[in-house]
């Protein structure tokens, strides 16, 4: 009867003495058949529960490294902290490395420091550039699993990607935009924070492809490199509106939505349809005020829970699982907003 469990643990599970369990396991006889079955059932129960047995007392230090506006990093931190109690009996401690913008070398220095210092895992949101790929390779060589969050780095040795299907999200935005604009004339502004984040590139491709197929006459005006920050987004949007008087709808891929709406208002222009991403604190307020038409949202708590589980599996603390599936895309309006995280 092969098993990995100590006699003491089996005895506790079966409610029998260690001596009785020892006799059953070693076939010494003098034990009722029903008692032998109880020992077998106890071993089977322990096998099913081995995840919890092996997690007791385990502490995982995970580094969360993100280049993203503060509104999104705040949402990620809140989602992770809300999930921590559900990860027990494991203890997950986290170190946060957040930056809104800056040169790539600062981000790679952070990743290189983690590789030298050590970590049980890294959850990463970063631009898809060669320097980041090299830093992820360094983490992998150091035995540190990397899970990409929201935006993927598929050409790197990252362990898994957690987030939504960004092409499908872009196509969903196009479907909503077409339904709500209908036959009304007007151009659509697509706004990216940067062309180096794969998730934004994929959203834009999904949006453009679906719009071309369903509404080929609708012109799209692309805006990029606002970094998702209101301070830089305002001037970019205002200049785009001044150049093109027919812009009357927005698909915001990268954020900066308060500034985008202010640019419309300051020029006395109507934004007939506005589709955005992520229920951060800015978009939550704008949606409640009916200034956004819809927000495409995915459950960050589920994403952070899955990312932590992937790190635990990498260390053998959880049993293997199948491929990580994309997070479900939720279309959120002012009338179906989920409860706040935490």
Automatic annotation (TrEMBL):
Domain of life assignment: Bacteria
GO molecular function, one term: DNA-binding transcription factor activity
Protein name: DNA-binding protein
Family matches, as PANTHER family: LACI-RELATED TRANSCRIPTIONAL REPRESSOR, TRANSCRIPTIONAL REGULATORY PROTEIN
Keyword Disulfide bond: no
CDD domains xref list: HTH_LacI, PBP1_sugar_binding
UniProt entry keywords in alphabetical sequence: DNA-binding, Transcription, Transcription regulation
PROSITE patterns: HTH_LACI_2
Pfam short name (any one): LacI
Domain HTH lacI-type: 7-57
Entry-linked InterPro entries: HTH_LacI (IPR000843), Lambda_DNA-bd_dom_sf (IPR010982), Peripla_BP_I (IPR028082), SBP_2_dom (IPR025997)
SUPFAM superfamilies referenced in this protein's UniProt entry, alphabetically: lambda repressor-like DNA-binding domains, Periplasmic binding protein-like I
Keyword Transcription regulation found: yes
């Amino acid at each position: 009867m092969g098993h990995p469990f100590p006699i003491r643990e089996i005895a506790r599970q079966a409610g029998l003495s260690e001596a009785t369990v020892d006799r059953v396991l070693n076939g010494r006889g003098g034990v009722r058949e029903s008692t032998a079955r109880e020992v077998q059932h106890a071993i089977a129960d322990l096998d099913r529960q081995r995840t919890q047995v092996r997690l007791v007392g385990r502490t995982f230090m995970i580094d969360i490294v993100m280049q993203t506006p503060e509104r999104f990093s705040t949402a990620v931190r809140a989602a992770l902290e809300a999930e921590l109690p559900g990860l027990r009996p494991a203890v997950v401690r986290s170190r946060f490395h957040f930056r809104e913008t800056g040169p790539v070398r600062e981000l790679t220095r952070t990743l290189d420091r983690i590789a030298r210092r050590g970590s049980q895992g890294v959850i990463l949101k970063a631009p898809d550039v060669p320097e980041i790929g090299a830093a992820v390779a360094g983490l992998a060589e150091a035995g540190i699993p990397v899970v990409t969050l929201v935006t993927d780095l598929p050409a790197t040795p990252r362990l898994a990607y957690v987030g939504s299907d960004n092409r499908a999200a872009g196509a969903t935005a196009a479907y909503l935009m077409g339904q709500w604009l209908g036959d009304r004339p007007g151009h659509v502004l697509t706004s990216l924070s940067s062309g180096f984040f794969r998730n934004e590139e994929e959203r834009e491709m999904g949006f453009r492809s679906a719009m071309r197929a369903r509404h080929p006459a609708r012109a799209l005006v692309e805006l990029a490199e606002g970094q998702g920050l209101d301070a830089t987004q305002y001037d970019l949007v205002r200049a785009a509106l001044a150049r093109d008087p027919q812009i009357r709808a927005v698909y915001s891929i990268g954020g900066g939505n308060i500034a985008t709406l202010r640019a419309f208002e300051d020029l006395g222009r109507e934004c007939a349809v506005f589709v955005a991403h992520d229920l951060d604190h800015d978009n939550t307020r704008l949606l409640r005020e009916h200034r956004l038409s819809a927000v495409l949202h995915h459950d960050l708590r589920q994403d952070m829970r899955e990312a932590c589980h992937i790190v635990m599996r990498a260390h053998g603390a959880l049993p293997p699982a199948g491929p990580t599936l994309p997070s479900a895309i939720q279309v959120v309006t002012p009338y179906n907003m989920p409860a706040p995280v935490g």
